[in-house]
Design goal:
single chain, about 375 residues, alpha/beta, Rossmann fold, 2 domains, globular, binds S-adenosylmethionine
């Protein structure tokens, strides 16, 4: 396994608070053997599934965020030489003709688009969107959507991936926006051609868009050997919001992601809900997970503290209490401080003393 290549594939698209591929590999190798079944109910950008596919473990992942599912699927793609050829033709055609085609393009529209994108960005993205819609092959579509999604926030007025405020970005001409897309497409394709040679299990259809409170519908009772997951950190992010424009451009249902997301800032900062709601949401999901777990299976939960209504939410204590009725035994525990370790967190969230916990439970017979 080429670890450096794997890390580059794993970081291909920004995703808030994802864990590293090294961490996923470490726990998968320690707690499972080949052919075991692993499940991640908060799949995000698919790190657990990527590590599973590389180590010959079967894995399933579910998430309610369309962009998370898109990124996960990208990492699980296996492309035929014909599909690689078609993708090469796609980008060559774009590079050769974008200047002419853009003039006859019908522009995509949604309310507030002009606040978030300059005219040049709307023109280039409308052309890309149109070209993707002509593709018949699902895997080619996933590849092209992934590349498009990865440049959308860069060419929009959105300040950063985890700051939803509009700022004016300089130098956005049609030519340099098109070049940002061409460059990203070509480097991603080059990287992917290398990755495509790696030996790995095909898990593409096992990365699914689903509220994990319904995981019983897709997984059999007593079938899972390990859960490796990281739920949202309460009141820290709005995954649906940071990816909102990506979802609009790719025709995904923002409302579904928003309404099914647990732990968001929308719920705990805007709607001012109490943290007990988060604990009951977690319980609902993990009690469904309990059904599909084998006896003696392990459950590894990585979760950070938060702040709700001016008080610290101690994630370790809350998880232990919320999941107490499941009778899981805590068999290992470690933590680190968020302000020292977490590069993905904005300064304002890195409150001194906030911890990121790794809780390892075991389901007893
Ligand atoms: C900390 S992130 C997981 C990151 C992931 N470990 C990775 O490496 O990319 C938490 C995820 O939980 C997802 N989520 C929130 N509510 C959910 C629900 N009801 N069902 C499934 N996923 C949910 C969010 O969309 C987000 O992707």
């Amino acid at each position: 396994m080429n670890l450096e290549l794997l890390q580059r594939i794993d970081r291909i698209h920004p995703y808030p608070a994802k864990f590293t591929i090294d961490l996923a590999l470490k726990y998968i190798l320690e707690y499972t053997k080949e052919k075991d079944v692993i499940y991640d109910p908060f799949m995000g950008a698919g790190t657990t599934l990527l590590a599973s596919s590389m180590t010959n473990r079967c894995a399933f992942g579910t998430d309610i965020n369309y962009i998370g599912v898109l990124i996960a699927k990208f990492k699980l793609l296996k492309l035929s030489s014909n599909e690689i050829l078609n993708l090469t033709k796609f980008i060559n055609e774009f590079e050769k003709n974008y200047n002419n085609k853009i003039k006859e393009m019908e522009l995509f529209f949604y309310p507030s688009i002009n606040h978030w994108f300059c005219d040049e960005a709307i023109m280039v993205l409308s052309l890309i969107k149109n070209m993707i819609n002509t593709l018949a092959d699902e895997k080619e579509k996933i590849f092209c959507k992934l590349v498009t999604s990865s440049i959308i926030n860069v060419i929009s007025n959105q300040d950063s991936d985890t700051r939803y405020a509009a700022i004016k970005k300089p130098n956005l001409t049609i030519e340099n926006i098109a070049n940002i897309f061409i460059k990203k497409f070509k480097t991603t394709l080059k990287l992917f051609i290398e990755f495509n040679k790696e030996n790995r299990l095909d898990l593409l259809n096992q990365a699914m868009l689903l509220n994990s409170a319904n995981c019983k519908n897709i997984l059999e009772k007593n079938s899972v050997d390990l859960i490796l997951t990281s739920p949202p950190y309460i009141n820290t992010y709005d995954y649906y919001l940071y990816h909102k424009h990506r979802m609009y451009w790719l025709d995904y249902d923002v409302k579904y992601s928003m309404e099914n997301e647990i732990g968001s800032r929308r719920e705990y900062s805007s709607l001012k809900k109490d943290s007990s709601k988060f604990n009951s949401d977690l319980f609902k999901i993990f009690s469904n997970c309990n059904n599909i777990l084998k006896n003696n299976a392990h459950i590894i939960i990585i979760i950070g503290d938060g702040r709700v209504c001016g008080k610290t939410y101690d994630a370790k204590e809350n998880i232990i209490q919320a999941l107490h009725p499941l009778n899981w035994t805590l068999v290992d525990y470690s933590y680190s401080f968020l302000d020292q370790t977490s590069r993905s967190f904005q300064q304002s969230y890195r409150t001194k003393g906030k911890k990121e916990h790794i809780l390892i439970f075991q389901k007893r017979a």
